[in-house]
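To: structure subgroup
Subject: Chain for Friday's discussion

All,

I'm putting the inputs and outputs inline so they're searchable in the archive.
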Amino acid sequence: MFRKLFGLLLIVFCLSSCFKKYIVTEKEIRQHYDTLAFKPNYKVQKGPDYKLFTATFGADTLPPVLFIHGAPGRWEGFRKQLDDTSFHSKYHLLAPDRPGYGFSYYKKKYRKTTIEKQAELLEKTLELNKSVKKTIIVSRSYGAPIGAYMVAQNPTKFEKLIMMAPAIDPDAEKFFKFSKFGKWPVLRWLIPKRFVTATDEKYDHVKELRRIEPIWEKINIPTVVMYGGKDWVVTPENFDYAKRKIGSDSTKKYIFIPEAGHRISRSHAELLKQEIVN
């Protein structure tokens, strides 16, 4: 019994140490922006069964750019772009917490929400923009299929779709040794809540990707797909899947970056900037 308890505590300690590397606290976010001349403008949209929390930058009369984070994650994962002041005079930057992460939810905090429902809710974020201009979507990892679903459902609303390290191939979902720990009832009480949501999302992701497969042939706006040769989170099959499903006409662009890992928006911020601006 003692050995089992000790083993469980050791797992919790190791996981907690690992998770800390990927979590930026509210205090750290405040301290970060205390050093800058500008601050995020936080917006909260509420309905009977949902809450959407969005950090915005730039005037709401400028063309919108919507950032959709992966799992686990929050809006602050795009700080390289959000803190780029050259964007602030050109675009209205919208960085929401996806439902189930941070301060956003559908029906219940930290509960996984389907791709379709997330797309529906995140489209409400665009109501914060007053420009009547088409939106550029910048998405990554698990956020990519959500952005793609939004485009497929309402293509006239969007100017461009950018997907970085997209997790979109249902036959290439990658599971890790630690993934199963998020399913253990005891550990679910101890690990950060966003990782509980991420675990539930991961174990349903294959089923959800199969359900939305018809969307890819409907994407007819300019689309950019980026993938890093050193990505250990999303497999190369996802990059090939995008090429196969979305096609290769003149409006589609596929960028392979041999030296990049999973966090392309951080490591290759200038390259992403060029694709947004162009």
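Points worth raising on Friday:
The chain has a mean pLDDT of 89.
The first strand starts at residue 41 and ends at 47.

D.
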